[in-house]
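Protein folds are increasingly written down as discrete tokens. With that in mind, we are printing a sequence and the tokens encoding its fold.
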Amino acid sequence: MSRTGYDSPYDNALRRLQDDLYEARSTVLDLLPEATQYVLKGFYSCKSRQETYRWEQDVAKNLVASATVLPHDKGSFFSDRAYCPLCGIGSTGPYTEGFSVPEGLMRHLLGSGNVTPCRVMKVVLGLARNYWERQFRVSEQEEEKQKCIRIDERKKSEPLFLVAAEEYPKLIDENLFYGASARSSEELTWAERRLSELGFCSSSEDSPRSYTLERGEFVVFADPRIKGQIEFRVYKKPLPKLGRRPRMGSVRHIRFPDSWKHDLRNKFDTRFAQATAG
């Protein structure tokens, strides 16, 4: 909407296009057999973003289970094969028909790998994701707001870690990569000893804590917060300013597993040389 409170011609045209796209997608879904519609319209029942991820996998598995397996003289003598129960297409290869069941057909339905994606499933997923966005946007924004408030409160009393030149100090479990866990106090102490053995200077008595190593025109920041490994960021001087995105190619990453027990200096030196080569 424009500053005057009225929709501009651009806004009106965009809304009409969005409405037309919704109608087209809905029509494709309504043209499918009733039983198939029942399976695909299950996206309306998803109550959270996590449920949507499961739904995509589950609906693809249900469709694979409903596919008609071809006779071996039509498909392949080595594996079961079937045409897509939604769009009806199969492999583009010259010697086989359909898709392998279940893996090839699953990839086709989910649009993964190098298999031709299902155009009907793509339409349904577009309809579903638009619906989920409308359903979850407000609650997710409120959840993110509350999360930021909790983090700010924790930062007033808990130790902070400066793990990158351009980033603000973080809590021990803040912004870890997906599936990673933070170290316990004992595990963190162990990691700090390992960094000391590698020659890193530590300010672990202060907050924020930092672990750095300078080598000529390079500075290395260590992140020992992650259970199972230490992450390193190698910067070429001058360091990026706090809160600014580093120059393209000016930061390299090294991972150092906790499982390594011997010849640690040499292993680190080798990876440092690889990260700074060229």
User: Anything to note?
Assistant: The longest strand covers residues 229-236. Strands lie at 81-82, 99-100, 161-162, 201-202, 209-215, 218-223, 229-236, 251-257. The mean pLDDT is 89.
